[in-house]
């Protein structure tokens, strides 16, 4: 079996899983509780179906635009989802919630400025566009992976349990963004020779993330008991400290 056949097979599997997950999101009306995550899933499923309908075998130019629109939308909505995770966790703590929102705004402004600078610095034409867009995507993935890592390392303070839905969303993003970041770094250093490995690793990682999300959406969620939150008082202390800092 050729690499092209493997990539197309994995692509078909991903589309099927995405479609099923989108149906689950609609049936369960997940947008009421998680509007950002629901938007991400529905956008990703729609984008995959559109890209499949106008695949390179039919018309290369529309596929080019569809691919990069899907990439840009996925990155933006991915940041929205990570922000949504932190807003949910900080819901009882007003000061920390405000601080997290401020950090996300600053991060997005810096990413936009960085992306514009990189695009301007690259040579004109498609090669410059590809390299600039890839570097910008790598910078975004670094931010996402860093935030997810902080979330998992601080899970005790947040009272986050592996059976909670918000943990599953973070876990799925952690899997996909970590693999994506590694493969982007490889691609930027090796070049087009790494494209097949990049495509396969990305398809497998995203499909695995989709399955994780599907499992958490279908499984009953366990509410974290107070006994499982030994560091909740410390989180409240952080909230008070930030609140005092803001009020000065």
The average pLDDT score comes to: 78
CATH architecture: Up-down Bundle
Distance between the termini: 66 Å
The major beta sheet can be summarized as: none
Which runs of at least 5 residues are low in confidence (pLDDT < 50)? 226-230
Mind sketching the topology for me?
Blueprint: H1 3-28, H2 35-53, H3 60-89, H4 94-121, H5 126-153, H6 155-158, H7 165-190, H8 195-218, H9 232-247
Mind explaining what this structure looks like?
There is one protein chain. The protein has helices at 3-28, 35-53, 60-89, 94-121, 126-153, 155-158, 165-190, 195-218, 232-247. The model is unreliable at 226-230 (pLDDT under 50). Helix 2 (35-53) runs antiparallel to helix 3, helix 3 packs antiparallel against helix 4 (94-121) and helix 3 (60-89) packs parallel to helix 5. The chain has one domain: Rhopdopsin 7-helix transmembrane proteins (Up-down Bundle), CATH 1.20.1070. It is mostly helical and 248 residues long. The protein contains 9 helices and no strands. It starts with a helix and ends with a helix.
Which terms would index this structure?
248 residues, mainly alpha, Rhopdopsin 7-helix transmembrane proteins, globular
In short:
The chain is mainly alpha-helical and 248 residues long. It is 81% helix and 0% strand. The protein has one domain (3-247): Rhopdopsin 7-helix transmembrane proteins (Up-down Bundle), CATH 1.20.1070.
């Amino acid at each position: 079996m050729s690499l092209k056949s493997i990539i197309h097979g994995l692509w078909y599997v991903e589309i099927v899983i995405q479609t099923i997950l989108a149906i689950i999101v609609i049936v369960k009306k997940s947008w009421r509780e998680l509007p950002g995550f629901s938007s991400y899933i529905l956008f990703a499923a729609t984008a995959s179906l559109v890209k499949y309908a106008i695949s390179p075998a039919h018309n290369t130019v529309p596929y080019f635009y569809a691919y990069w629109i899907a990439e840009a939308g996925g990155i933006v909505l991915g940041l929205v989802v990570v922000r949504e995770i932190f807003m949910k966790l900080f819901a009882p703590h007003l000061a920390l919630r405000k601080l997290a929102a401020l950090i996300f705004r600053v991060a997005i402004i810096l990413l936009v400025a960085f992306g514009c600078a990189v695009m301007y610095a690259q040579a004109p034409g498609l090669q410059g566009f590809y390299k600039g867009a890839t570097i910008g995507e790598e910078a975004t993935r670094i931010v996402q992976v860093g935030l997810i890592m902080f979330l998992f390392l601080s899970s005790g303070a947040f009272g986050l349990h592996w059976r909670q839905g918000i943990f599953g969303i973070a876990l799925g993003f952690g899997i996909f963004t970590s693999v994506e970041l590694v493969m982007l770094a490889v691609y930027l250093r090796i070049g087009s020779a790494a494209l097949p490995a990049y495509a396969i690793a990305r398809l497998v990682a995203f499909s695995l993330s989709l399955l994780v999300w599907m499992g958490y959406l279908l499984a009953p969620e366990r509410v974290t008991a107070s006994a499982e939150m030994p560091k909740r008082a410390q989180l409240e202390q952080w909230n008070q400290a930030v609140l005092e800092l803001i009020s000065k």
